[in-house]
Every structure is written in structure tokens, then in C-alpha cells.
Amino acid sequence: MLEIECAGERLRLLVEKAVHWPRTRTLIVADLHLGKPAAFRSAGIAVPEYTTATDLERLGALAAGTGSSRIVVLGDFFHARAGLQAGMLDAVARWREQNAALELVLVPGNHDKNAGSPPEIWGISEVEDGWLCPPFSFCHKPQSCDTGYVMAGHLHPAIYLREKFGGGLRAPCFCFGPGRAILPAFGSFTGMSNMRPGNGDRFFAIGPGQVLEIDYSN
Amino acid sequence: MTPVAAGSETAARVTGRDAALQRFLAWFKRRRWTPFAFQLEAWEAYLDGDSGLIHAPTGVGKTYAVSIPPLIEWLAESPPGGGESTSVPLQVLWITPLRALANDSTESVLAPIRDMGLAWTAEIRTGDTSAAARARQRERFPSVLVTTPESLSLLLSYPGTREKMASLKSIVVDEWHELLGTKRGVQAELCLARLRNWFPNLRTWGLSATLGNLAEAQAVLLGSASSAGRLISGDLEKRVEVDTLLPRNVENFPWAGHLGLKLLPQVLACLERKKTTLLFTNTRSQTEIWFQALLQARPEWTEELALHHGSISREVRESVEQRLRAGTIRCVVCTSSLDLGVDFSPVQQVIQIGAPKGVARMLQRAGRSGHQPKAVSRIVCVPAHALELVEFAAVREAIAAGDLESRTPLENPLDVLVQHLVTVALGTGFDENQLLAEVRTSHAYRHLSDDEWRWCMDFVTRGGQALLAYPQFSRVTRQSGLFTVPDPFIARLHRMSVGTITSDGAVAVRVVRGAMLGTIEESFIGRLKPGDKFSFAGNSLELVRLRDMTAYVKRSKKGGGIVPQWMGGRMPLSSQLARMVRKKLSEAHHGNFGGPEMSAVQPVLKIQADWSRIPEPDELLIERLQMRDGIHHFIFPFAGRLVHEGLAALVAYRVSRLFPSSIAMTVNDYGFALLCASSISLDETGWHEVFSTDNLLDDLLACLNSAELARRQFREIARIAGLVFQGYPGSGKSTKQLQSSSGLFYEVFQRYDPKNLLLEQARREVMERQLEASRLGNTLAGLKAMKIVRCEIPRLTPLSFPLWASFVQASVSSEKWSDRVQRMAAQLQAAVEKETDGAGSQHAGN
User: Quick one: which of B647, B691, B650, B690 has its CA closest to B667?
Assistant: First the structure.
């Protein structure tokens, strides 16, 4: 866990690939890609089914652990229409029942547009063009926005740390720029894309057990 | 009287055969050729119904050894005069490892057919063939179908192929040595097993360059039917001449990183003397560097110089090949992409830049010139540094002795089997027991265990083992007794992935709104930023953006930029050649410097002898030198780079258990170096213990970052087993949501399905392929019998200098590296000169 200040608010960057905003008791996550293994399996690609269940469990535990009353999902809640299969949907429904008190806000991402909206009964409020909760504006794609500091996902950011004698290490990261922040993907069956330094970004890499700010200027 | 009738029928057939044979002999005669003994032997063996392997150097007419007899047979058996209104149905499947070879093979096959006006057709079917042509072929195959292992496998995935191939008489596998020991070779083995099962009288013929393990090569080709096979040798008196360009001043302190450009003037002179030259380098990056250097030295040759390597787009490669055939090009700078048997008769000269690393490869390259029977093949060698002179002398001797490398066949690669299971299910569908029996007739899977088979079946039908959760998974399902693939989307995905065994994370390089230039490794392009310059396919380019597996570039006016380092460019020194290098060194040890290369390198070896020692074949030389940064040990087993990588890690691991300290390592083809801060003192027995074969595998696993290596190896496996799709142009949106990295799969399997046999295969392949564990074991066993010679050296020696230089390279930036290494070389040279100057007075003093 690492505490930073952003747009005048205190934010806690969690090793679990989420941001906690204590003042508003909000947990912010991006890119869950639920049902991705199922989508793969339906195309004949073998992926074991543990990830959806464990990801939901992690999310529930994190909300409880931080005392959050609200979860904001920055898009790509679902992976694809082909992944919306009974087993996965049941798992989410059960999880929602167990966490019924939580307020859930979803800013739909490009994958959600393919997969469609979550069933109404789950009580997830969908906000099409970004959700404003000053000083932040929650979006899926990192774009500049004059209504507030943008919190986004979509890119699954990672940084590559080179070691002295060849080799290196890739780690998921948070990326905070002057006008927008990009969160790492929360889902465990998701890939990453390497970020490049520049744009005045600060990088916070997620290592085993800790979040570290990396001087990534060269 | 049936027996008599049968007898006369046989007699008639023999007479018919003889008449047909005469027609082909006459055709040879018209071309002023005389068939070689091995060709006649092959014709006869084929006509007798045998299968076999023909090995011969390139350019002696292997093609005609197998393309003629099916024609003879057909002529002998077809009723005279009639039935020639339609073309002859499929007779021969001709499998070639390279698409580039398909054109040439087809032309060779067609030559006698055209001349004699036979009703045969020959067509190509590869990934480049248009969809319309492929569909037409599937309706009615040509008499000879020239194809690749991937395209053949793909054919097996269509129902009805068996019926349409019913007239097939034989399969020819061209350049079998190229497929042997690769997964594409295993894919070919599985296809052959299937075809032989369909058509029991099918004949299989392989064409191969000469190898160290021909009998084994034949066994792999023919599978369980190999005992009856014929091995036919066409090793005629094909003369190969090896010449080396000798540098005027041999540098005493050679280091890798030099690219032989010092010899550029002499190379230019060679190019001026001959009309057409192939200039081979060992890596694609060297190709780019040499191409630029030649162009800079002779700008007027712009139109006559070309570049050819595996990453360049097909259109460009084909146009280069076309110009080579036409003889309108002066020089093509190339890598192994032109190693194979394409017939470029106008090629007059072959130049090899840098060490040959292998005997067979050198022969193959030499054979690109003088590509006619009985012509002399000449190869001009350009050493990149002094020690490579020894390697060239060694390769000449190995060629003379016929001491060639073997290609070890692969065993049980489950990723290829998994792919094949889906392919067969898609095609005819299969009965489990029958298919298992068929798969076991192939050499690669002859020892496949029931458990491994069970696991592969589970993988394609359930996703994983029964107890693990793979809900709603189905790729292959059982319907009315047969395993099939009912889902058309899965079928489409599979067919798209069948051809991808060779491509590894390839990113297309395309000019913005312009031509496609070729492909480049993702790992290279991923490190560039937009605006970075790099050199590719002979062009200076600037990266504009990277999107959808395509690097968009624009041409850059300014030269320079980074030259891509392609993976896999660095072949290790082969055991055969290493043995010969040690022999040449031993001769030098005894003062024998016969031959131009050895006498040129004599001053360098003399310094080695004066300051340290030239090791004998039964000696393991260990040089020790205290420098500012710590104690360096330079150890020379001469076992090739890959073995040394494993060995260095192992020795460092074992030494650090004795003397706790952090140890840095570097390796090259001749030896490896350890640098540690604290003092290591080991006597001869101590070193022997460090080199012990006890606990080898455990120690290796403990000391190597084997998990990381396995993760990387898993990329290929995941692709072949159909877990990872590389969205390629035209695959559309439907596959986009199915793209994922193999690393992700590796992690998920590690966590949720750790017994997944594909993970196990990755670990095994790391041991065997990346570390050459068995060669490493053999090396260690060999070291046991060796005498350890420890030398305290006064300063870096010619043998240790290149190892030290790569230490420096690993720790500083490239500019500083070059400066520092050059400074050190100058210092050492000064020491040599001081000794030489002082030698007289020293002796006088004694």
C-alpha cells in the first residue's frame, strides 16, 4: 500500500491492483474481464475456470478490508458475449447476493459493449459517458476531460525494469499523469501493455507485497 | 492356366517398363546428361515398390532420382495411345520445407513432362496459393502436388481428402535434413503415418544432404516401416574448395563484435572478379551491416546488390531469387534463408563471413556455387577475427574427413500431437484406438505412453484432466463413435493456426501507406519508441507507430540507427567442428602450422603459448588472472556456446557453495569465464569435483533461472497446441477477443493445473534444446578424463581476451565498451611488442 495525493485527495494504491479513496469510502478497479476464460473455452482453447471465482472473492475481500461502501469499475467488467455462460453468471450473482450492501458503479468499456449490460437484478448502475464524482471523472479509456481529473483503465499498464546484466522484470503499475491516472487491470486472466515514460507521468509498480514508485525517466 | 498368364503379364510389364525407361534415358541424352549410378539405383528401387532415403550433396540431381520413376511406372502401365485427353490424377505428393523451393521443384518435375508431352500436371499448394486455386485443387488434385508440411497437414483437416487422394502412389520429402529434428519434421511424420495408413502401398522417398546420422534419418522418415527401406548414396566426387582471405595484419587480441569489415577491400575485390556472388553471414544483423558497408564502398552497385533473409517480405525475396536465376545481380548478402537447395546456377562464387560453426552447414553453403554435377564448389572464407582462422582450417579438414554433424530427431512433442489430434478430428474424424496405433507407427511417438496419450485426448476433449474445472469446454467431441470437431468456429480457428509452427511473435514492417517490407521479432520492435531509427532489409527506417502486430515505418534519409538483433542468430559451434578445432590447436601446440590459415594465426597462438598454453585435446585449460575488479577464471572446454552457458552457471553455482561470493559469468564457443570478488583456490582435484556429473540435473535446475526459461519456451508450445492466436491480417474481429499471451497461460496453468503436460514439455525442451543438457552431460563426462592445466597468466591472453571483452559489454554502454576494449587491446599489443623487442636482450642476459 502506498498513499499519494492526487487532485487534492488522499488515495491509497493497493497491491491488489485497486485504488482506495478513503474520504468517499470508494474502491476503484479497472478491467475485470469476467468470463474471459469461458470465452476462450467456448472457442476450444483450454483455460481452467478458477480465475472468475477468485477474482470476485478478491474484490469482495478488498471492499470489506478497506471498509468501502462503493466500488467503481472503470470498464471491461465482462470480456465478451461468448463468456456469458451459466457458470460464470451464477458465480457473479452469488457474489452480488453476498455483497448486496455495496453500491456498484460501472463505466462500460469497449468489451462491455460487445458483451452487453449486466443483468438488472444485480443492481449495477451503468454510466455511459463517464461518471463524475468531483474532483474525479471516471472513464474507461484514458482521455483528457475538462470536468475533472480522469481515472481510467483500458490499457492494462505495466513497466519493464531492466536489470544490469541483461534480463529484466515486468510488473503491472499505476500511472499518474498531470490530468489523468491509469489503473492496472484487476482481472487475473488479463495481459499487460508496456508504458513508455513521458507526459509527466509517475509510475507506481506493483511488486510482491508492495507498491513502489519507480523513477522511470530514462 | 492362371500362373502362366500372370507370368506373361509380369513379363509384359517389365518390357513396358524397359521401353519407358529407354524413353527417359533418351531424354537425358538429348540434354547431354548421363544418369548417375545413384539415380538409376533409385529408379529401380522405386519401380520395385521400395521406399527409402537418398542422400547426396546439393547440385547432383537428387530431384531426378525420384521425379522420373513415377513417370516411368505410369508410362509402362498406361494403355498406349489412349486416355490422354484428361490429365493424370494425383500420383505424387512432393513435400518441401521451404515455400521458396516449391517453384524450383515444380519446374524440375515439369521439365521431362513438357518435353515428352505427357498428360501430367504439377502444381504448388502453400500458404501463398490463392484461396480459389486451393479450392480447385481440393476438387481435383494435379498429378504432382508440391506442398509444405503445414499445407499437407491442413489438407488432412478437410473431410474427403482421403477419397480425392486415392490414386496417390508416392510421397517425396525434399530436404529432409532440414525438417529432421524440428517440430515441422514431426508434423510431417504424423502426416506420413496417416497417409501410409490410408494407402498401405504408398512409397515414401526422402532427399537429404549428407548427415552424420543417415540411418536414423531414414528410420524417422519411414517410421515403423523403416526396416524395409533403402538408403541410397549419391556421394559422388563433388569437389569442395575452401579458401580463406587472410588479413594482412592479424590482430593478436581478437574479440567478438568485430564483423570482419577490415577485410572489406579484399571482399570487394572478390566481388569484382566474378559475375554473381552469394555472401553468407551468420546472423541477420550481420547481413544488414555488410549490405550497408558494401553499398557505402560501391554506391554505383545500388542496382546490383541485394539482401535476402528470412524476415524480408516474400515479394522482395522472390524478386531477388528471380534476379539470381537470371544472373542479373552481382551480389546477394544473405543468411541461412538461401542455404537450401534452390538452384541458382549462375552463382559463381560463395563467400562466408565469420566462423562456419558447423561442417554440414559449410558444405551446404559451398554447394550453392557450382550447382551442376561435377562442377567444383568454391567457398571463400572471411574471418571476423584471428581465432576464426583456426575454425576455417578445421572445417576444411573435417570436410575432407567427411566428419559431419548429426541431427537428433525429436521425441514425443505433445504440442504437435495435440494439434494433429484436432486436425484429424476435423478431417475424417477418428476412432481413438486406431489413431493411437497409427500415431505410434511414427518415429517421434513410437514410445508414446498410454498416460501421455490419455492426457492429450483429455486436453482436446475436456481442456484438462477430468478433476479440474474446464466447464463448457469442447474442442473435439465424440459423436456416434468418432471424435470430431462440430463447431465451425473452432474449426476455422484451428485451420488458421495450423501453419504457425515457425513464426515467433512476428510483427509486420510496413511503410505508412506503402509497401510491406517484411517481418521482425516483436521483442526487438517492442523496445523502440516512435521516432527511433533502425536498419531493416537494407533500408534506414524510422518507426512511426506500432499497432495490430504491424510496425508502421517511414524511410529515413539519415543513415545509421540500430541494427535489429534477431533471436536464434547465434549457432553454437558443433561438436564435430569443436573436435577438429582442438586437433588444429594440438598441431599448433607441437609447432605444426601447416596450411595458410594456421600460418597466418601462428603469431597469435605463439603469444597464447608464451603467456599461457595451447591446450592439447586431453587437457582442460584454466587461466587465472587477478584484475582490478576481482579474480577472473577462464575455462576452455571447447564445447560450444550453449553448453558453456549451462556449464558456467553450474560451475559458478558449485564454486559459490565452496566460496560464498557473487560470481559473474560470460561464455563463448571456446570457453567461459567466471569473475568473483573473493579469492577461489581450487587444486586439480577440487576442479574435478566442481565438474562432477553427480546431481547434474538437480544442480542445473537449482542454478538456472529455469522457471523463466521454461516460461519463454512455453511461447512456442502454446502456439502449436492452439492456446495462443496471433491475430493476423484478415483474421478479423472474431479472434481479437481470443488473443492472450502465452505468459498468461503459463501462469494460470502453474497455479491451477500444475500437472499440465505442456508445462512439463516446456521444462524438458529448455533442458534439451536451450541448454543441450545431454551434450552438457557428455562434456562433463569427457572432462573427467581430462588433465586440468591451471595457468596463472600475466595478462589477458588471445583466448581469454574475447571473454573478458564480453564482461565489459555486459556492464557498460556500447560506446564505452568499444573504447575500453580497444584500449585494452592496445595495452596488450604494447606488452607483446615490448617482449619481442626485449627478447634478444633477455636471452643475452640469460
Answer: B647
In angstroms, the CA B800 to CA B807 distance is 11
Residue B801 has phi, psi (to 5 degrees) of: -55, -50
ipTM summary value: 0.79
**Three cell numbers, residue B793:** 597468466
Are B612 and B791 in contact, with CB atoms under 8 Å apart? Answer: yes
The three grid cell numbers given for residue B219, joined into one nine-digit string: 528410420
Q: Does A161 touch chain B (CB under 8 A)?
A: no
Contact (Cβ atoms closer than 8 angstroms) between residue B536 and residue B509: yes
Grid cell at residue A18: 485497486
> Between chains, do A48 and B753 touch, taking CB under 8 Å as contact?
yes
* pLDDT > 90 fraction of chain B, expressed in percent and rounded: 41
Report which residue type is found at A50.
Y
CA closest to A189 among chain B residues: B744
Helices B575-589 and B387-401 sit at what angle, rounded to 10 degrees?
110
pLDDT tens-place string over residues B585-630:
999 999 999 999 999 999 999 999 999 999 999 999 999 999 888 8
Q: What is the pLDDT of residues B245-260, one digit of tens each?
A: 988 777 776 655 555 6
Are A41 and B468 a contacting pair at CB < 8 A? no
Strand order in the sheet with B203-208: B122-125, B144-147, B92-95, B170-173, B203-208, B52-55, B230-233
Among candidates A46, A167, A188 on the partner chain, residue whose Cβ is nearest the Cβ of B463: A46
Chain A (21-80) residues lying within 8 Å, Cβ to Cβ, of chain B: 38-51, 79-80
Contact across the interface for A44 and B664, Cβ inside 8 Å = no
pLDDT digits (tens, 9 = 90+) for B331-372: 999 887 776 655 666 788 899 998 888 898 888 888 877 666
Write down the H helix ranges in B274-376. 284-297, 314-326, 359-366
Chain B residues touching A46 at Cβ < 8 A: 459, 463-464, 470, 473, 475, 723
Residues from chain A that touch B470, judged by Cβ atoms under 8 A, are 41, 46-49
**For chain A, which residues score pLDDT lower than 70?**
162-169, 216-218
Which residues in chain B have Cβ-Cβ distances shorter than 8 Å to A189?
A: 740, 744, 748
Overall pTM > 0.90: no
Question: Which SS3 state, helix, strand or coil, does residue B801 take?
Answer: helix
Find where cell 517453384 sits.
Answer: B103
Report helix, strand or coil for A203. strand
d(CA B286, CA B353): 9
Least Cα distance to B768 among B503, B410, B419, B488 occurs for B410
Element (H, E) at B413: none
